[in-house]
Structures are given as C-alpha cells and as structure tokens.
Amino acid sequence: MDELVHLVVADGVATITLDSPRNRNALSAQLRKELRQHLTSAIADDAVRVIVLDHTGTVFCAGMDLKESRSADAENQGVQEFPAILEQIWTCPKPVVAKLAGPARAGGVGIIAACDIAVAVDTATFAFSEVRIGVVPAVISVTVLPRLTTRQAHELFLTGETFDARRAAEIGLINSAVPADDLDAEVKRYADMLALGAPNALAATKEMLTAQRPPAMSEAFEQMLELSAEHFAGEEGQEGMKAFAEKRKPSWVPDALK
Fold first, then answer.
1. Which residue spans traverse the membrane (predicted)?
2. How far apart are alpha carbons 250 and 258 in whole angstroms?
3. How far apart are CA 138 and CA 131, in angstroms?
C-alpha cells in the first residue's frame, strides 16, 4: 500500500505532506495513522526545529473520510482517533505551521486551528460543513473555538457557510492569506523566524500560551515569575544574552540562518 503521508527533514524543518488527492486528503484510517507516526518522528528528532504541514492536490484536507464513516457504528467511527492527532499538534513542543494551497473543510479546519501558524493562498476557502450533513463539529471545536469570538463561532458553525481566506485571516483562523506565487516564501518566512527561537524557550512559551491561568492575578504573576526567572538563569537564556552582547547568533540558530 502506497504511503499517504510523507516526512522530509531539511535545514531544521520537518515537512509532513498529506498525499491522498484522490479523496481530497480526507482523514482515512491510513492517513490518520501515518500522520500520527510522522508527527511523532518529527517531534523526537532533535534536528527538527519547525514542523510544516503541507499537502498535494487541490485541497488541504476535506475532513473525515465519509466513505469509511458510513459503514461504522459510534464506537468505531474514525473520529474516535481524531482528538489524539489534534492534541499532538496543539501540544507539540515545536512550532507547527500549516501550509494551504487549497480549501479546508471540517476536520481539516480543526487541524489548521491546532497549528501555531497557518498560511493559505488567497483563493482558499473554508467551511464548518458538519451540520449540513447532519453531524456536529464537536471534536474540532476544542481547537477552533479558542481562535474565534463567540459570535463568529455561532455564525460559522451553525450556518456551515463557506468563507474565503481573507475572512479566515480577519477572524484569526489563519495568520496570512497570500497569492499562490508567494505561498512558499511566506511559509519560509515564518519557519525562519520560528527557527531563531531557542528550542526549550519555544516549548515553554507554547505551553504557557495554552495553559489555564489561575483566577488570582497575584498567583498568575507568581507562576510567570518562576517561569521567567528559570529561563533567564537557564542555559539557553545565558547563551542568548551572551550572543546578544557579542553581536552574534545564538548557538541554537541553524547554520542556514547564521
């Protein structure tokens, strides 16, 4: 059986490519399994500083594979495995960038929302199409809702309306919408910026961004002060300050960016 997801590592960037264009990169059992495996490999590889989720074909991801879903009961639906993928992306200690050369629907939008950065061509479209086929955008809501205001979520989840990349950027679902000829350069721009950050500092910052804050401001400051002081005094912080004083790039910066 041909592989449906590919992993290539070069210059500190792990590119994971969805390659199932015959069904618009739908989340079939095989694709889900291979995506998880390649994410695990990229996370474990110390040479990898940034992960890029790419795709072949005209569609980034159409959501769950409905052909598989039609013949399964609730306990055996493919969506049962989907939370693990979204959580793996959301909690990944390395920055994850989604690269969209085409549309995303349903679960595909959930993947985009789980990524730290998302860049799309300006012709890409998006939709939470679940209600229109009689299902609920439940699992993806965990990653999507933190990106949207309540009013936007109600409108787009309940209507299933298709919206363009310009609006996706305006509401915070993606970071940037660019002409097709500029897509590669825009993704590289983000990847290069992310690679300038220290690995442990990036991981800690990602964890901080998604963690729940205590209700009391004093307790929040106490936690953040401990985190800040730990990294100021840590190996990366000391190296970063030394490199700044010596007007050079820190040791963790990939050679290609020095």
1. none
2. 9
3. 10
Reading across the β-sheet that carries 163-164, which strands appear in turn?
Answer: 104-105, 125-127, 163-164
| Burial class (CB within 10 angstroms; exposed 0-12, middle 13-18, buried 19+) of 246 | exposed
Nearest to 157 by CA among 165, 166, 148: 148
Which of 34, 130, 186, 236 is catalytic? The answer is: 130
Q: Is 134 left (phi over 0), alpha (psi -120 to 50) or beta?
A: left
Q: Which residue has the tokens 């199409």?
A: 129
Q: Which two tokens stand for residue 107?
A: 């679960």
| Bridge partner list, 117 | 97
Cβ neighbours of residue 180 closer than 8 Å, sequence gap 6 or more: 101, 121, 122, 123
Three-class SS state of 113: helix
Give the span between the Cα atoms of 128 and 256, in whole angstroms.
Answer: 39
Residue 141, Cα to own-chain centre: how many angstroms?
A: 14
58-113 pLDDT, tens digit per residue, is 999 999 987 876 665 666 556 788 999 999 999 999 999 999 999 999 999 999 99
User: What strands lie across the sheet with 117-121, from one edge to the other?
Assistant: 5-10, 13-18, 50-55, 96-100, 117-121, 176-178
Q: Is 130 a catalytic residue?
A: yes
Kind plus residue range of the DSSP H or E element containing 172: none
Cα(95)–Cα(82) distance, integer angstroms = 20
pTM for the model: 0.95
CB neighbours of residue 63 within 10 Å: 29
Q: Quick one: tokens of 112?
A: 């985009």
- Residue 5's SS3 state is strand
Residue 172 region, left (φ>0) first, then alpha (ψ -120 to 50), else beta? Answer: left
